[in-house]
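P.,

For your records, the input lines for the assembly:
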Amino acid sequence: MTTQKRMDAGLRIFFTGVGGQGTLLATRMVGEAALIQGLNVTMSEIHGMAQRGGVVESSIVVGDIASPIIADGQADVMLAFEPLEAIRALGKCHAGTTAVVNTVPIVPFTVAAGQGQYPDVQDVLEDLQESLAKVVALDAVTLAREAGNVRAANMVVVGAFAGLQVLPVERSAWEESVRRLLPPKLHDVNERAFALGFDAGRAVA
Amino acid sequence: MHELLSPDKGGKRLLLGNEAIIRGALEANVGFVAAYPGTPSSEIIDGFARLGDEAGVEVEYSVNEKVSMESACAAAISGVRSLCSMKHVGLNVAADAFMTLAYVGVKAGMVIVTADDPSLHSSQNEQDNRFYAKMAHVPMLEPATPQQAKEMVLAAYEISEKFRIPCLLRTTTRVNHCRGVVELGDLPSGSVQGEFQRDPFNLVVVPMVGRKLRLQLLEKEKGLREVSESSPFNRLEGSGPWGIVTSGVSALYVRDAVRELGIEDKVTVLTLGMTYPMPERLMGRFLQSVDRVFVVEELEPYLEEAVRNTAQKLGLGLPISGKGPDGIPEAFELDSLKVKKALGRFFDVPVETPTPLSAPQDLPPRPPNLCPGCPHRATYYSVKKIFGEEAVYPTDIGCYTLGLLPPLQMADFLICMGSSVSTAGGFSRVLDRPVVAFIGDSTFFHSGMTGLVNAVTHNRNILLVILDNGTTAMTGHQPHPGVSITAAGRVEPRVDVEQVVRGCGVQRVTVVNPLNVKKTQAALEKIREEMKEGGVSVLISRSPCPLFERRMLGTKQRVVFQVTDACDLCRDCLSQLGCPAFVWERDAGGECVRINETLCNGCAVCAQLCDAVKPKKL
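Structure tokens returned:
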């Protein structure tokens, strides 16, 4: 019901992570799955200087929305691949936002160099839970390792989002999206990672 | 087959704006493509480089944007449709060619993509390149979506060919790097053989020819105005008394904002896709049909000036607004919320906005950084050891610009590509301090060579450090004239940096591998002494970009480094080298420094600086 209501007005999904985590691939995965499902979808990414270990942000809008980017307070969903970046992106969210958050930190080098402190992950998650309508926090790295490759943590997060069924996309379309975007040798591990995330998401949907 | 060569006419693909531009050019039977990479345009030339052979398209990574435009115009003047693409500041480099190419024109269609970067996501400024169209009298199309980008490329070739003038396709980051549904069209078959007809009194621009062509250009513009008047890209929607004028990606923000404000039946929206020449009659009819007008556009008041101009010509006194403190900001990109608020204020409609949450203020920043194992870090570390705080360090554009961040802080001045060496020459004449400039290999070829010749000519007392990592790393590892690593393995470079430097007349040229810290610092010591004699010294600091080398040659990493118990917690590794593989941790047991083995690249620079760091075989 909530899903239907959201889709009438369109759905804005904000992605945030750290360079090297596969944030853009995950974004494409969601976009491609929505396209396979026949939804109207637009994605926006930033390349270039944004990489090199910095923050990577991207967005997807689905439904009857023309603007490709998400303004402050407009994200209906946030997929965060790193907890510090989840809390940093809070300004994109509103009280009704649903978030999927990987709980494994990547400490920025500025902390190592003594510029600021990495916040306590538990505090970050509590903050998010207090502010947002729903937060699915999961250790995507451990689940990805279980699937066979820690680098598939991005697929775990996408899977958890799929499992929440906020976006009306069928399981088969998600799987087709994985197959379209990855070379055959990576299908198995990514499908397993997606499935582990999916189950975690569905359990709390 | 490359996915952009799919013959699936009518098929739908989720394409990046830049991919849609490639597809559009392929559907228009483009035969020649040239570009120097630059965000947000790089994927255009990279895509062409991947599919060129298969598609029968000649593809050139040019040495800079001016060269790319000249190269591509030669094809177009010979009857082969061509394309060149560049970031917005690239058109500054190509502007000399551009302004007079507008006079001389083309025979086959030529499209020039200028990719503007509002909000400076990856640029040094956010100039509005729409003014180039106006200055050169060149037609311009401004797409809003990938689908429209593809359609406009096709239309641009038609316009260009019909009027024998290049056509500008002006995009912004949110078009280039937006991915949307694009419907594929037909791919033509068969390439066109170039043919050149000698015609010096139209093709060789001496003053008498230029005078004639200037008048022809103004004549062409009359015809182009008619194209704009009837262009399907310039359209009116709605019939309400409140007028809105917009173009490009701003049109999308307007659409969402109007719907969210619930004012669909109160507005008339003039959406412009062909923004040079302006469709003045269409705009006039629009202005006569509304009682006030608001202009929504990113960056400068380009449309707004045209609207005011048209209203003045028609003697219309209706209120016109756009840029201003209560309106649309001039700086940075827009979004639907900014547009909604501005429209609400102007039309006096209540605005409901989401209540954004706010992030805590004291979060540690995560700026981009030189990668672990990056040879630039090693070069900076050594130069800083020898030249210290006293020297002035002009720098240039590339990954190495990140050397401005702590702890390296090895960047003092930068304005544009190639400015390192030329400004170093200037600094050296007015300052009584050593001047050490940094430039990357690709940037050196792009626009550093002329500055070096200038410095030698005037005997400037500078050290130019050429950071030679064998690729154009920042924009995605594109080749340049000096590359020695290719997919086929190691090769002799076509143009060797060292020979070029010597050819420019530099007597003191040293080549080092910066990953060897001791030898590099010894070389720098020697250079510092030699600089007392005056004149130009060049240090070529050569070590391949590790990401590139691994990708191209598939070399495996053999070793990682570890911090052993001998660590005395001096933290020099963190405060001086700043390699992101280093981690500082504090827990109940005290503090420690360690190396994240998944990030360590095995470059061994840290191990040369600290006895507590030891290798571990993989």
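Two observations worth noting. Chain A is about 45% helix and 20% strand. Chain A has one domain: 3-140+166-188.

Regards
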